[in-house]
Amino acid sequence: xxxAKYLFIAxxxxxxxxxxxAQQKNPPQVSIEIKEKCGDGFCDKLEKExxxxxxxxxxxxxxxxxxxxxxxxxxxxxxxxxxxxxxEEKFNGHSNAARKFLAGFDKYNAKATVEARLEFxxxxxxxxxxxxxxxxxxxxxxxxxxxxxxNAEEIGMSQEDMNQxxxxxxxxxxxxxxxxxxxxxxxxxxxxxxxxAIKAGLEFTxxxxxxxxxxxxxxxxxxxxxxxxxxxxCHDTYPLEVKGRVHPWRVSDGANWLEHDxxxxxxxxxxxxxxxxxxxxxxxxxxxxxxxDQKDIDAFMDRMQEALEYTKDGEIxxxxxxxxxxxxxxxxxxxxxxxxxxxxxxxxxxVEWMSVNDMYDExxxxxxxxx
Length: 371
Prior knowledge:
There is one protein chain. It contains 14 helices and 9 strands. The protein is an alpha/beta fold. The protein folds into 2 domains: 28-63, no CATH class; 70-370, Glycoside hydrolase/deacetylase (TIM Barrel, Alpha-Beta Barrel).
């Protein structure tokens, strides 16, 4: 009887341990990572979306303060030397001009946003000289100057054509340069250029001019730009007022891009005009002459002073002027005078040099913590 009793107990114990799930000695790696990150004061994307560590996000929002400064850059277009793809001498001339111009930024630790035509990217690949990577490693922003869509009606370009061509341009740029492209300029069109940018996987856009309003319904366009023939004839800075340009905003489509849409997938950074056009734009004189002199510097400083008035609005404040390294041969002494005029504002903390790519990162951080 005793043997049967002990045998019964032994069987019960065996069945108990055999049927009980073994304890997991090593929890999933993701749980370990989340536990280690909780309390680090940084609200990353996973924590924000899943609400896993709300204390980090709440802490971050409480600590964040919108910078009361103006982020400043220059948008530099590498364009105008179309035969450089086949002509190494032409490419060397273009790349050397770009290097000489950008060298002026080094003295003041200033940051530019270099936007290249695809021809330049092909040329640097053909001739084994990755100029853009060199600029990128120095902290300058890199983007695509597409020059696409401005003549859509003239050549019969469809919306699908523009979407695909911009996508192809971006992909080819990245493949040839080895640099991730977040943005493009030169895409204003009567077609929906916002849709084309989003479809191409771009995150923000620069260099917009008054011709961009041609994507809007005719009745919504401003009177002075209601019937623009091309970007050449409507190349005015837009919006017209500095206050309308200083804070970036999100856009969802070309029909209402002047209105901020918090759900828009493209961020719009409004530019100033080319630095060597500013005085002519102020006076309404012939900007084709493009003479870069002290009058342009004075015009810039007036605009910068006004932009500084809006840095306490509780939003990210940005400003950037344009420059084209085509056939232009700038007076580098005047350029140095421009940098020198800005330097006191940098030293006082009112202005900070930053590529538009880095401005975009600042905008995202502001969105995460304020909106």
